[in-house]
Structures are given as C-alpha cells and as structure tokens.
Amino acid sequence: MALSTIQNNSFADTAVHGYRNLLVNGGLIVSQRGDYTSATSYSGETYYLDRWKMWQASVSGTVQQTTVTINGVIKKAMKIVATSSATGFIGTRQKIELQNIPVGVNLVASCWVRSNNAYTRFRYNDFGGSDANSPVFTNDGNWEKVSFSIDSSSTTVNPSIGLITYDTGMVSVTSGDYIEFTDFQLEISSGSPTPFEHRSYGDELRRCQRYCTVLNSPSNLFMYRDYYSTDTMVTNADLPVTMRTTPSITMTGSGGTSNTGFTYINLGAEPTLAALSPQAIAVYRGVASSARTYIHMASTGELTMEAEL
Amino acid sequence: MNILSAQYHNGPAGQSNITIEANIDGKIVWVPVCVGNAHYDEILRQVEAGVLTIADASTDTP
Asked: B21 — contact with chain A (CB < 8 Å)?
C-alpha cells in the first residue's frame, strides 16, 4: 500500500483497528458441537454454540443458531427461548481467561439484541471484583444496538459477560420469552463501542478450538494404525491448536466395532482414550493375540475435546 | 454436572492413572488427570466432598 493512501486519521487515538474483540465467536458463526439451526432443548451451564455457556434457572428452554437480517445485512445469531413459565432466568454468557483481560482499564460491551422479556440486559460477573447488571434494554421485540461500560480494575478471577433476564434476583419468565443476539463485542474503551469486528470463519474457528475441538473422519482413515505385534496398540492425533488445558474427550458414533466410534480388530477390549497434553490425544489398548491388529476412526465416529472454562 | 461413576486407566506404556473414564450426565467422558480441566476439577471436588470415589485401574489395562 502506498504511503499516500494512509490517512492521517489512521494514527488518531480514535482510529478503529483490528483485534479489538476480546470475545470469541461473538458473531455466532462457529458451531462445532452440533447443528443447532433448529431449536434444541438445552441444559444449564452447558455449551452449545462455541464459547457461549447457557445461563438458566428454574426455566426450561431451547437454543438455536439463527440467520437474521439487521439493517439489510444477513448475520448469524443465537436465540434462546423459554419453554416453561416460572420465576427464574434464561440467558447465556462467555467466560474469559483472566490472562486475556487487560486488568485496570475500562471496557465496553456491545451487541445487537432483541427480546420480549422486560428484564433482558447485560450482566457481568467477576469484573472489577464484583458482579453487575446493565440497565434493561427496550425489549419490545425489535433489534437494538446496546452497550455497557465495565471497569475491569481489580479483576482477579476468570470473568464472564452475557445476556440474561434478571434483576436484583430472579424474575418472571413466561414460555415463549426469548433473547436473540449477535455481534457481541467486548473491547478496551472508555467511550462508545466501535463497529463489530468481523473475523473470517477460519480465524474464528481456530480461536474456538482453544476451548473445544471436534474431529471426525468421513474418509475412514483418521487415526489409522495397522501392525503386527503382541504389544499395546497405540494411535495418536495432533490437535489443530494448543488447547487451553489438557482436554477431556467424548467419543460419539456407533458405526464402529462394538458400537463405538472406532473400527478395530484384535484388541483385547474397547480402546482407551487419553489426552496427555493440550496438543495431542492417544487411543490405545493391548492386543488380544499375536496377529494383525488395526484401528481407525469409523466414518460415523467423532471425537470432541473440551477444555472450556 | 452429575458424575455417576469414575475409574482410572493406566497409560499405553504402563503409566499409572493417566486418564479417568467417567460417566458424566449419562455420557462416557475421558478426563485427564490435570488440574484446570473443568471435568477433573469437578471430580476432585466431589471426591473431597465424599460423594464420589474413583475406582482403581483394572489390572488388565491398557
């Protein structure tokens, strides 16, 4: 780029630059754990769309990855709908690693939101050593851009911020009440929020994989190992990014041997799964006899590695 | 997090207790022995609270 094309305002304190959003998947474009494009019943304190943890008390509900149009622009969004009525709350939040928060500065959260519950608002926990609500939004069912300033001084544990139907305590939630949002951003600012920082799907996916990685194998060749030995069969897989911590592993899929997600012969029993570091996992088991032994992930198999907060 | 059972497993080279096979909310989850992993932290909390016991590794594993 020619220097003549750099505008003076690029150097101004008010210039808008990249890498501003401290949240991951604020645009709700990544959904590794499943296809939630239909309303899906959720459990509290559980992750569905990447990085967004459900926030729920006394009220059952559904979560859905929706496609919405705001000011003529098509966006992905997340919709939470109450399916029962009670005094409680519905919502979602994102927990942030303390090391990723610049403690001692002012932050501002912003997003597009629409809701029909009078108490829908931002709520943060463990910022500046305290928890707090924003004022309630308009909550008339129409999209509105909302923001909320946060003081992160004295933040000492992993903080979180999200959207919730809440007041000084639980509130009345009626079946059909909903919160739908997108373009959730948390940035360093003492003033107004800047426009939402759009990141590519690949960029956002890599950021999500620090906390959750899903591996599958339509080709039937993933984690393939074939040998003749009387020893233990071991097959490994490197993870695409270094995860936040050594992850837990869940295997799904029933198309393999013994109704598992792996196809194998001559193993003494179902394979053991272990993550030994944030970078790699291993699958292993002693062989049944001296004979050809092989293992690979079944075409319907899937491994989910979780290192969430 | 409802942890119905938990059992240690040894490693492929005979390392002791390197992973835990846990039934969490009805699903089998392989949990690393690693403080900071949310599942392991919860297992430790329930063990210390006396509501969960981690079974020893089977002698025929791995």
From this structure: yes
